[in-house]
What does this fold into?
Amino acid sequence: MFLKLRYFIIFKAIMVKISFLGSCREIGRSGILVESKSGAQCILDYGIGFNGEDRLPHKAHINNLKAIALTHSHIDHSGGLPFLYKTETVPFFTNSISLAIAEVLIRDMIKISNYPYPFGYRELDYLRQNSYFLKNKTRQRIEDDFYITFMDAGHIPGSVSILLEVDNKKILYTGDINTQTTNLINPANPTEIPEIDALIMESTYALRKHPPREQLEIEFVEKITNIIDNGGTVLIPAFGVARSQEALLILEKYNFKGKIFIDGLARKISTIYLDFPDFIRNIKLFRRAIRKAQFVSTRKIRHNAKQSNGVIISPSGMLKGGAALDYIPSILTDTTSAVYLVGYQVEGSPGRALIDNGFFEFKELKRNRNKSVDLHIEALCDYKYFDFSSHSDNENIHSYIQKLNFERKSNKDIFCIHGDNKSTTSLASELTSKNYNSVAPETGEVYHI
Ligand SMILES: [Zn+2]
Ligand SMILES: [Zn+2]
It folds into this structure.
């Protein structure tokens, strides 16, 4: 059984220590510190939070750091990494596509944020200079009796789960995980994971049930085709990383014939995906889709896109900013057009309010008043949320865990993180009732296994 630090004195020297630095009963600032019995340390992910004053993971006593490893490029996992390179020069293990995209996202984050992050472009350069690319399923030594192995996580291109082997204990950290096949990448496969002693499991959608994927894709394409056939325009606000490209691939797969425009960050990320074909499930389909789409690279093309009878894919996914805001007034007030959201809409976001109330509100005050935005628009167009998730739902999580093999002598320890309070604690109690030894750690808690 794992032991919390405060109950623990005698056996400390022979156990592996896991400190949860963030993403505990919340989503954001992911960070886990693992320490071997000889004191060698490894950090898994180091992301940023989105709210409040504490945007970086919880402070830990880092005195013998040997490596840092990243599961994927989303900034809730990668955004704080440059902070570590203010003082450290340890190897940073990742893969080529995750580094390329994390750099774009972190640069963007530093540039546009009002929050004063305690690092800048220089530390981001140090991060890159210390990076090493790991192939999946290749065991990498960190120290004696301390190894990491990357495994497919199925979440976004380049995403991995990390298998740690420390002092004869095997611990799997899922990172963000998807066990359903998407058009962009292959799913996570639990049968590829060797026997483990403990699991650190993401719980984002532990309380949800996703609709059947194929049916959802067909409905999505049918609705879009209808709008286009009737002379309207469809805005798909989508996250620039992965979701924009997934929406594009769905349209290509079902042979959508209309015009498609891609705007904002989705353009840059799509170009990076073309540069790393090995990380894309069907690169031919993706290349064909990109060839047919038009990148919105000038004001004139954006103007044309607005006038066009076509589909516009543009961040931000929750309509909190980005190029999508430029399109939204004309689309919302046109009864023949539509806004189809394809990603999760967090409570309080403009996208969520649109779906719940049919009303769009957005306010952003800029120093230059001419650039301030203040929008209050009733939606006259069609609007709908399509649940194209890249996280496993309740059923997927349970079947993933069921397919994992725990060492016979182990206590089947499962730590539920990366989800709100209800999702993480409910999943932990569901697993406890299935005879796993499960808990939803709180920020800063330390366990020994
Ligand atoms: Zn993610
Ligand atoms: Zn995440």
